[in-house]
Amino acid sequence: MIMIFGIPGPLLFGQLLLGLINGAFYAMLSLGLAVIFGMLNIINFAHGALFMMGAFASWMLLDYAGIGYFPALILAPLLVGAFGIFLEKTIISRLYKLDHLYGLLLTFGLSLVIEGLFRNAYGSSGLPYRIPAILQGAFNLGFMYLPIYRGWVVVAALVVCISTWAIIEKTSLGATLRAATENAPLVQAFGVNVPRLITLTYGGGVALAAFAGVLAAPIYSVNPNMGTNFINTVFAVVVIGGMGSIMGSILTGFGLGVVEGLCKVFYPQASATVVFVVMVIVLLVRPRGLFGKAA
Amino acid sequence: MFGFSRAQSIAFVVMLVLIVVSPYVLYPVFLMRVLCAALFACAFNLMIGYVGLLSFGHAAFFGMGSYVAAWTMKVWHVDASIAVIFGALTGAVLGLVLGYLAIRRSGIYFAMITLALAQMVYFFCLEAPFTGGEDGIQQVPRGHLFGFIDLSNDMTMYWVVAAIFLGGFLLVHRIIHSPFGQVLKGIRENEPRATSLGYRTDDYKLIAFVLSCMIAGAAGGTKALVFGIATLTDVHYSTSGEVVLTTLLGGLGTVFGPAMGALVVTSMENYLAQFGAWVTVTQGVIFMICVLAFRRGIIGEIGAFLKISL
């Protein structure tokens, strides 16, 4: 057996993989938060609840309509994204003229409502969602076994993150979006429908959270609290990375997942808090965050 | 005295009468819960209402105060007054450390940082041996106050809790109306200008944060004493959310808002407790209504209607 720093190789790589998977979720969620914050100037506290709704949407599609995993991977984000657009149109858009903190409070209330309703309907114990047949089993990589589904999650998350980055940084739609983030009235004067852009951005960010939720459904049991467990850590990730850069969010998310995984190998007691410790260090050394712009 | 206006003096007398009369009408244990929540909300209001910083991690100070007070009571068998003081000191020291980190950012980041730091405290409490993990610290004796007042009687305990609440309430009011408090308001309104006038704004914010955390710790310690239990719920982020809701509903930056909010939120929880998760749903709905239509809160709206500041 290969030993690395006195740790059996398979254990080390296994935890690294788990870390990468957590990192994939951190990356997708903090990316959505950053995109929404850039455009709406609102911290979407309901992000965790919407992530949970994505997981539940895939479970419902399978259980009530017999629609499998791969169609759900498209359908659930569309459904939850549409719900997000509805929320933005009816409620959130009323807050743009107010202090940013009200947006945080409103979306926090929203997350309580959504989670409470799901807890009433489905209990808190969690519902199983089977890994689709084609993604079951494991590869033997020589130095470790790689469960196919876990590999798939990392690859899918990377593809989605990179595509989001490409859309925002490399397309003309993204250019308009970035311009509207900088100076909305000016972009509006050029004939761009900025309110619609804002609505679509929120819908897009929410769809991203829901996509992460579908990916998470077979790994974690589908339960109403799954979003909350993630989102508090994701906020720390956002503070560490700073919300200024899309690529920064992705790198920070994956990086912190790996750090957490390594911590589970070398010092398991601290693995739950290591992300927060990193946040403290970053706050001391570079308060604006690793990729944040100067205030 | 204490810088009360005429209207506020009248409101204070009304509150005082209610505190004295209500234990003869209502269940004292319920009222003690209200008073602890009210003191906690007063502490929180000091930050959001007068410094303009939203702390989303105040449960850390409340909960740690509660743990330390419970532990000193149960293991060291100290006097009840010492236990509450220990709770307050714990809040203050923890507030100094976490506040030193959190005030490096403001606005939304401040809220996220306090939330994350409080989450760290939660995980610490989950793992640390002295908190009893999932079980918490149970069967904490109420003991004696100043060595000779037996607190096992609910009515005696009630008067002590009422005194602690009034002490904290007046302390917050005194802080706000001191020259120090005026500088805080100046920082809230225009921080660059306060800086240009030569005030070290970070120091002011940190001192206010420590004071707020100290009072939150005292509230937690008192709560542990009343109910004889300190659990993970006290440090959980839902408790942080609850104190935000309490203060928002009562009225941010009002003197009597936190107490009013505590009365409403605690009653609501009391009556809705049998309906399980509907408590959460109702809290969420109230949050949304407050933000969308009712930003001044109950006391703020009454004050605006009567054209006075309460």
Protein described:
The complex is a heterodimer of chains A (295) and B (310). Chain A has a single domain (19-285), classed as ABC transporter involved in vitamin B12 uptake, BtuC. Helix content of chain A is 71%, strand content 3%. Chain A is mainly α and 295 residues long. In chain A, the strands form 2 sheets. In chain A, strands 1-2 form a two-stranded antiparallel sheet. A two-stranded antiparallel sheet of chain A has the order 3-4. In chain A, α1 (9-40) packs antiparallel against α8 (194-216). Chain A is globular, with a radius of gyration of 19 Å. Chain B is mostly helical. Chain B has a two-stranded antiparallel sheet.
> Alpha-carbon distance between the termini of chain A?
50 Å
Number of domains of chain A: 1
Give the helix tally of chain A: 11
Structural class of chain A: mainly alpha
CATH topology of chain B: ABC transporter involved in vitamin B12 uptake, BtuC
**Overall 3D form of chain A:** globular
Architecture (CATH level 2) name of chain A: Orthogonal Bundle
Please state roughly what percent of the residues of chain A sit in beta strands, choosing from under 5%, 5-15%, 15-25%, 25-35%, 35-45% or over 45%: under 5%
Strand order of the largest sheet of chain B: 1-2
Summarize this structure briefly.
The complex is a heterodimer of chains A (295) and B (310). With 295 residues, chain A is mainly alpha-helical. Chain A contains eleven helices and four strands, in the order ββααααββααααααα.
Map the helices and strands:
The complex is a heterodimer of chains A (295) and B (310).
Chain A: E1 3-4, E2 7-8, H1 9-40, H2 47-65, H3 69-90, H4 100-122, E3 138-140, E4 145-147, H5 148-170, H6 172-182, H7 184-189, H8 194-216, H9 226-241, H10 246-266, H11 274-285
Chain B: H1 6-25, H2 28-50, H3 59-76, H4 80-102, H5 107-127, E1 144-145, E2 149-150, H6 154-176, H7 179-189, H8 191-196, H9 201-227, H10 232-235, H11 237-250, H12 257-272, H13 278-293, H14 297-306
Antiparallel strand pairs in B: 1-2
